[in-house]
Amino acid sequence: MPDHPTQDPDFGKALLSHARTAIASRLDLPAPPTVDHPALRASGASFVTLTRHGQLRGCIGHLRPVQALGPDVRENAIAAAFHDPRFAPLTAAEWPDISIEVSVLGPSVFSPCPTEEDCLRQIVPFQDGVILASGSRHATFLPQVWEQLPDPQEFIAHLLQKAGLPVALWPSDMQLGRYQVAKYKEF
User: What φ, ψ does residue 103 adopt, rounded to 5°?
Assistant: First the structure.
């Protein structure tokens, strides 16, 4: 798990306030001031997930730290709201119905995964975030995706599809990455 105070409720409030304020500011809407926390100045990787009426509305993030956690969350919040290629940019009319979840990622551990069976043996459903990588193609699912895809084979099939990799022909150079997250969600 990351070197961030994952049990500190103020840490979650700070993460969520930075995400919400970044999006509201971009929409030119009022937002409460952000909550500060010293852990936001440490290097970290995050994903920001937006939902509207329980349905995915955007999700963007980094798998490894590229900057301090505070700027990472703000950048990913704006990207999830306005630059996720699966969705039109978020509008001010949608904003009142948006819920935000911030996931802080721990380090990824990679291992060769020459067969689907080998991959299935290595992953821990409902705990692991999973990265599949072959050649220049890769994709990830956060651990939260297990809630929608609880069957490990179906989970892997959807992840292969997301990466643009063949489902029927397992690439021999496949690499499996596993990571955990600490997640913070608005209620």
Answer: -110, 125
- Would 187 be classed as within a structural domain? no
The pair of structure tokens assigned to 153 is 């084979």
92 plus 134 within the same structural domain: no
pLDDT of residue 1: 42
Q: Are 174 and 119 in contact (CB under 8 A)?
A: yes
| Per-residue model confidence as pLDDT tens digits over 30-47 | 988 999 999 999 999 999
Quote the DSSP letter at residue 114. Answer: -
Close Cβ partners of 143 (under 8 Å, ≥ 6 residues apart): 126, 127, 128, 129, 180, 181
Residue 144 included in any domain: yes
Q: Tell me, what's the pLDDT at 5?
A: 57
For the CA atoms of the chain, what is the radius of gyration?
17
Domain that holds residue 39: 9-106
User: What amino acid occupies position 185?
Assistant: K
Q: Give Cα 72 to chain centroid, integer Å.
A: 12
pTM of the model: 0.91
